[in-house]
Design brief:
The complex is a heterodimer of chains A (about 150) and B (about 200). Chain A has seven helices and no strands. Chain A is mostly helical and about 150 residues long. Chain A has a domain of about 45 residues. In chain A, helix 3 packs across helix 4. Chain B has a two-stranded antiparallel ribbon with strand order 1-2. Chain B folds into two domains: about 90 residues, Rna Polymerase Sigma Factor, Chain: A (Orthogonal Bundle); about 80 residues, Arc Repressor Mutant, subunit A. Chain B has about 200 residues and is an all-alpha fold. The chains are: A mainly alpha (about 150), B mainly alpha (about 200). At the A-B interface, helix 2, helix 4 and helix 5 of A face helix 2, helix 3, helix 4, strand 1 and helix 5 of B.
Amino acid sequence: MKITCEDARPLVPSYLDGELAEVQASPLRTHLLDCPACRETAKEGKILQRWFEPDPSAVKVPPGFAARVARRAFAGDPGVLVPEPPAVRPRRALLPFLLVATAVAAALLFVLAVAIQRQSLPTGNGLGATDAPPPWLDAPPADANPAPAPTAR
Amino acid sequence: MITMHELAREDVQLVEETLAGNPLSFQLLVERYQERIFALVRHYAKSAVEVEDIAQDTFLKAYRRLETFQRQSSFSTWLYRIAVNTALDFLKRTGRSPVQAVEDPELSASPVRGQAGSGVAITAPDAHLRKEEIARITHEVLGELPEIFRTVLVLREFEDMPYQQMAEVLGISIGTIESRLFRARARFKEAMIRLHPEFATPD
């Protein structure tokens, strides 16, 4: 199967990384043999890879490193660079406190509301209302026996 | 010869023994991976002391989180993820974090794969350059790249990591790995030409 440059070029990086399935790699190889432009693309990719050689002067693991790390780990050492942030804890504690405070406040309000309601209700078995006229209706009117008017001399 | 599968099984065994309270098993785990972790984190550090500090913190973090290790991925993948995050945390804490990548390859509308003509090309390292010198130049150029590009180049080019494992370490898709690698390589070439124009070649 033949492929075009347009099909081939996107495949070149994966091909160089060894990530291309054979079903795609095979036609690409054929295309690279025939196409100088795509071959140049592949060559550039290979040149770039040559800059990533292992460094012989890289930092070596110091003797006893593993034993030291294991000892520190089991001693509960959190490390020197990125300790667990302690500032997070107070914030975490704030939410439960607010929830409890809100619940307590709500309960107090409820108790208060019930108490007020009970106080305003009438006491006794009945409702407290009778058919008898109110007491002020039994009393004689204020002007029933008016005082005699003074006589004229 | 020990196969990858056997290695992974031995790792899990050592993890379980460590969780059971055996310090020697954890020491063996560290010994297995210390070379690779040192090699990885040195690309984020400027001195041997920093390399050792980041590597040590990586293992201490791994120990503290060992109970959260799911056997779905390999121990090495899990450890690499911790190492990369520890190194990036270190860069942030030291204020050495280079410019963040503004372009997110996943959000980028333009196709990125296969755009061979990025406008720049570099030559191969001179034959007379010693390996140490090549490594120093590469380290310098990598230091100019945003973290996300530096990390994919390090994992791919130095650690020879397959795309699938890179995707697991970084928690992104293989498609994103491909596009990010493409951009990282283009940025590497640009930075190389800016810092070392003697290695530029007409594209």
